[in-house]
Amino acid sequence: MNDFLARLAGVIGSANLFTADTDTARYTTDQRGRYHGRPLAVARPGSTAEVAALVRLARAHQVAIVPQGGNTSTCGGATPDGSGRQLLVALERLNRVRALDAANHSLTVEAGMTLAAVQQAAADADRLFPLSLASEGSCQIGGNLSTNAGGLAVLRYGTMRELTLGLEVVLPDGQVLNALSGLRKDTSGLDVKQLFIGAEGQLGLITAATLKLFARPTAHATALVGVRDAAAAIAWLNALKDAFGDRLTTFEIMSEVCQNLLAKYHPGQLPFTAPWALLIELSDSGDSAELGERLVAWLAEQDMLDGVVAQSEAERQKLWQLREAMSETQKRDGPSIKHDIGVPSSAIPAFLDEAGTALEAAFPGVRVVAFGHAGDGNLHYNVSYTRPGNAELFSDEPRVNEIVYDLVYRHAGTLAAEHGIGQLKPHWLARYKDPVALAVMKTIKQALDPAGLMNPGRWL
Ligand SMILES: Cc1cc2nc3c(=O)[nH]c(=O)nc-3n(C[C@H](O)[C@H](O)[C@H](O)COP(=O)(O)OP(=O)(O)OC[C@H]3O[C@@H](n4cnc5c(N)ncnc54)[C@H](O)[C@@H]3O)c2cc1C
């Protein structure tokens, strides 16, 4: 291994190769603190050519590679194992804008740019890059692509798959696939870039992407509304779609348990509590005041328990901060068994009802923290106990997961709507995913990475 590391230092520079625990520590634990790895080293290549040379060298020495972006994966996707034999490749130095074509509404960036920096680069050109996540200050475009990230504006703009025009990828044999393109239409063969979106680094290292930009909305109208149950929430979703069409950008829901946590850790911030709270945002061209008036007039005719409409940008940000604080707030309150599930939004009320009943029967005193992107059917459905200690929580995880996932699949859903599979869910994927689909995926993996060196120990 010393020969490998010496050669690697020659490729990327010894200053960009970390082997001491003090230097590697920040890359080796996932953001939930659930997975701890011990890599052979952490490599920080600075260009696509360096990534390609690194991959060829690793292949020659049969060294496995774990790609890492911002390390915000909630399922241990970017954490190496404890063998001390895997090379962690951090893409953070690939952080440049390569090209901006404002007239084509496209932006080509390197994979290690943070999502926030990409959003800013688009804004500087008076354009919108609409992917929006609470982790946007840390997560990177390469990680967003590799997990097919979703977030807060999928309802209107789609997931990372829909937001990507082209990709550059270093394949497991070290070849560079140049599929960077600003085209919206291209029927010249298969769309190979889609293979790498959502592949969680198992088919290659993404080094750059061409992203879709949009006109920047100038008007926003944002409301927090309280309703009596989940069925009412979904009725609101459809009524809002009918009334405002594509202007409906965000439709998030938070259960009363979530609101109580926000009230506990952010006292005085929540304007009211209700069985369910809906965060609604419309966006459009034109003027915020006018859009706000339309929303207020519409709300006046609806049946709601309580509600506020943001009257200024500062009030809008306050409402958003509450929603974006949800994950961290729950983390402060202790561990939970996390699910990132998706069902058709029409099935959300039945799923919540059936899962809540089944969990309470199996684990009396269970606490469900349910919130998320109900506009696209994606819920963060996190389970813990109300009794103190939570000590046995993770030993109950298999049974909790079985109850939740059985119901998810009964409602034609998915066990990974936006966070991916990582180390947390491979065996669950094997249980629930269509076996033919899994076999096709494994055939592709075998063709591209026969030695199994790209992010091993995941689901492929
Ligand atoms: C507070 C909080 C809120 C969140 N909210 C959302 C949300 O609303 N929506 C959502 O979708 N996610 C959300 N996430 C999850 C997470 O931020 C996303 O999955 C994000 O896309 C991961 O990006 P990252 O750069 O941190 O990737 P990492 O965690 O570093 O890696 C994720 C996976 O991608 C692979 N990978 C990373 N970079 C590359 C690359 N260049 N080439 C090949 N493979 C690569 C890794 O090996 C790993 O398998 C949230 C996380 C937190 C902590």
Automatic annotation (TrEMBL):
GO terms for biological process: respiratory electron transport chain. Belongs to the FAD-binding oxidoreductase/transferase type 4 family. Residues 35-216 form the FAD-binding PCMH-type domain. It comes from the Bacteria. SUPFAM superfamilies: FAD-binding/transporter-associated domain-like, FAD-linked oxidases, C-terminal domain. GO terms for molecular function: catalytic activity; FAD binding. Keywords: FAD, Flavoprotein. The lineage of its organism: Bacteria, Pseudomonadati, Pseudomonadota, Betaproteobacteria, Neisseriales. InterPro entries: FAD-bd_oxidored_4_C (IPR004113), FAD-bd_PCMH (IPR016166), FAD-bd_PCMH-like_sf (IPR036318), FAD-bd_PCMH_sub1 (IPR016167), FAD-bd_PCMH_sub2 (IPR016169), FAD-linked_Oxase-like_C (IPR016164), FAD-oxidored/transferase_4 (IPR051264), Oxid_FAD_bind_N (IPR006094). Signal peptide: none annotated. Its cofactor is FAD. This is FAD/FMN-containing dehydrogenase. It comes from Pseudogulbenkiania subflava DSM 22618.
